[in-house]
């Protein structure tokens, strides 16, 4: 790897008794990259991240973080890394600003920097609000702010959007995009495949402690060569006529809809347009969830 690569993980293993939490995981992260580790709960994502951060020692394998081993606990790395854990604990009765000032004091952070980070995560108007009175989404943004306040080179985020409502999740996406736009390297875990598909430059799909696939989301989906699904409201077209349409490979019908699978969507959609059956039509291409299904043979469960 080039010397500027901030993280290199090579063949790490970690077991808890008979359970292999991490089973031979290897990956490299480039400078300025948004790298996602994704998979269902229990896949080994958090343990992998904790090993990369230097919070856990692997049974075997190696990690280079900003050119140095993070384990045993490397104090020289702490000012250069930011870590947001899956569960964050804040100081009782402190406001959002006071929380950041307390974390920042460990690194000699100025008041101006605290203001800058509050603005970055969209909490300027909540600076004087006690942490206990923040919403779930605001609390998550404060947690990320604490990981960013000392201006680290690489940021580790463990399921930062877990348990948030859809609007709060999307608001946090904007924060994460802005963090990357400022030149930071981001390594994060999530069990939301749709989120990783939108945010990440590359993803590693994990299950049972192993990486099943790793690449840019669009490339993983493209390489799957999966069929496109065209979904019509039930009754819009008889199933027999749907099967006769150009490009129709498979037709399935339930009580609500009729689904046509195709690898040639253009002629199929043209034929449907000629029949005037485009109202309410939905077109669904393959996603990372389809990649997961192909790799594991089972439906994805968060």
TrEMBL record:
Name the UniProt key words of this record, in alphabetical order: Antibiotic resistance, ATP-binding, Cell membrane, Membrane, Nucleotide-binding, Translocase, Transport
* Record's keyword annotation contains Cell membrane: yes
The membrane-topology field of this record reads: Peripheral membrane protein
Q: Which domain of life is it from?
A: Bacteria
InterPro entries, per database record: AAA+_ATPase, ABC_transporter-like_ATP-bd, ABC_transporter-like_CS, ABC_transporter_ATP-binding, P-loop_NTPase
PROSITE patterns found in the cross-reference section: ABC_TRANSPORTER_1 (PS00211), ABC_TRANSPORTER_2 (PS50893)
Where found in the cell?
A: Cell membrane
A GO cellular component term found in this entry reads: plasma membrane
Protein name listed in UniProt:
ABC transporter
Does this entry carry the keyword Nucleotide-binding? Answer: yes
Protein's organism: Prauserella flavalba
Query: What are the protein's GO molecular function terms?
Result: ATP binding; ATP hydrolysis activity
Q: Name one GO biological process term.
A: response to antibiotic
């Amino acid at each position: 790897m080039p010397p500027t690569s901030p993280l290199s993980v090579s063949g790490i293993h970690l077991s808890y008794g008979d359970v292999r939490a991490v089973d031979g995981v290897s990956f490299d992260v480039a400078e300025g990259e948004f790298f996602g580790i994704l998979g269902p709960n229990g896949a080994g994502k958090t343990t992998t991240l904790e090993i990369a951060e230097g919070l856990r020692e692997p049974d075997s394998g190696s990690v280079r973080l900003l050119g140095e081993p993070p384990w045993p606990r490397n104090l020289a790395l702490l000012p250069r890394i930011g870590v947001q854990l899956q569960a964050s604990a804040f100081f009782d009765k402190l406001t959002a600003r006071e929380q950041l000032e307390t974390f920042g004091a460990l690194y000699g952070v100025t008041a101006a920097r605290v203001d800058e980070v509050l603005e970055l995560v969209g909490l300027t108007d909540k600076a004087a609000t006690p942490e206990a009175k923040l919403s779930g989404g605001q609390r998550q943004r404060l947690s990320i702010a604490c990981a960013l306040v000392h201006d680290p080179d690489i940021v580790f985020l463990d399921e930062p959007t877990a348990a948030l409502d859809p609007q709060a999740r999307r608001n946090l996406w904007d924060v994460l995009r802005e963090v990357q736009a400022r030149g930071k390297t981001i390594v994060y875990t999530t069990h939301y495949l749709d989120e990783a598909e939108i945010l990440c430059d590359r993803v590693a799909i994990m299950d049972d402690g192993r990486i099943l696939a790793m690449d840019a989301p669009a490339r993983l989906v493209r390489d799957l060569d999966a069929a496109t699904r065209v979904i019509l409201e039930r009754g819009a077209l008889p199933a027999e006529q749907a099967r006769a349409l150009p490009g129709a490979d498979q037709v399935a019908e339930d009580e609500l809809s009729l689904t046509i699978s195709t690898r040639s969507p253009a002629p199929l959609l043209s034929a449907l347009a000629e029949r005037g059956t485009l109202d309410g039509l939905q077109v669904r291409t393959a996603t990372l969830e389809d990649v997961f299904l192909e790799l594991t043979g089972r439906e994805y469960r968060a």
